[in-house]
Amino acid sequence: MSVDPMTYEAQFFGFTPQTCMLRVYTAFQDYLFEVMLVVEGVMLKKLDGIPGCKISPSKIRKCTEKFLLFMKEHFDKLFSKMEEVLLQLVLNIPKNVLLPEDKVQEQYPYSEEEFQALQDELQQLQQQCRAEAVLEQELLAELEEQKVVKAELEKILQCFDGLENICREHGAGNFKESFALLTQSSKKLQDVLKEVEKKSKKMNQHDQLM
């Protein structure tokens, strides 16, 4: 078999020429084996019809195998020559021939350096696309968080609106002012509570000393 990979021919045919030749060789070989089995079977039947024949079936088998080996050796020699002719004259694409899909290379030729530069640029673009995809996912996640925060803020505003309506119904005036007064009153109560706690501690200390 040829050691030339013949990749350009494989691009055109859809299979390597060597694969084609191997299948042809296998088909011929299988056919040769089948023919020899048929010939052997015919000979055995003929011998059975001859009275007093001293040729045994095992001897027929040995003769068949010997003839098969002889045929195979000659077949291999002939096939080797046939393979060489087919690979050179039939399954070979001349060096000066371009396939239709490669015509663009003839119109727009480029050097290896230019091809490598294009490859580098392509890799950079791919990296940028991946980075932009990651950034897009982060922005989408942030947008979802903002939607959640917005929903919570809307709930709080609705709560404040409800409190303001309650204050108006009870004549408390503006909710913001009422809330400010409530905050001041709460601070005053906290101050009073702290003062009571201080006095209570002092009284407890005084009672312990007595």
Describe what is shown at a glance.
With 210 residues, this protein is an all-alpha fold. It is built from 6 helices and no strands.
Describe this structure as you would to a colleague.
This protein has 210 residues and is mainly alpha-helical. It has helices at 7-13, 17-48, 57-90, 103-107, 112-169, 175-209. The longest helix is centred in the last third of the chain and has 58 residues, at 112-169. The radius of gyration is 50 Å and the shape is elongated.
Which helices and strands, and how do they pair?
Blueprint: H1 7-13, H2 17-48, H3 57-90, H4 103-107, H5 112-169, H6 175-209
Helix pairs in contact: 2-3
Structural class: mainly alpha
The poorly predicted ranges are none
- Given the C-alpha coordinates, what overall shape results? elongated
How large is the radius of gyration? 50 Å
The termini sit apart by: 120 Å
| Arithmetic mean pLDDT | 80
Number of helices: 6
Described by strand count, sense and barrel closure, the largest sheet is: none
- Topology as H/E string? HHHHHH
